[in-house]
Amino acid sequence: MKESLRRLWDYTYVGAARTFFRRWYGWAMRSRLEPMKKVARMLQRHLENILTYLKHRITNAVTEGLNAKIQWIKYSARGYRDREAFKMAIYFHCGGLDLEPRVG
Hints:
2 domains
């Protein structure tokens, strides 16, 4: 069942993916495997978000990475004098600025 569910990520049409999931969900719920039923229920609760991913193919991974970098900045400084200093540190480390002097 687990391996079969992987095919869900191959779908690009939401209707086809919904039909596939409905069939897989029925199979999982008829099984005698309680952990599989638990996972199927969880996926059912989040099905609309899963289908949105299939339609748009974007995630929040970039946002999570940026947040991790900001948390690292906050941790490594062990605090800032005020909000402006913290904001400037974020701009400095995450802004992607080229600080090399231009010649020419």
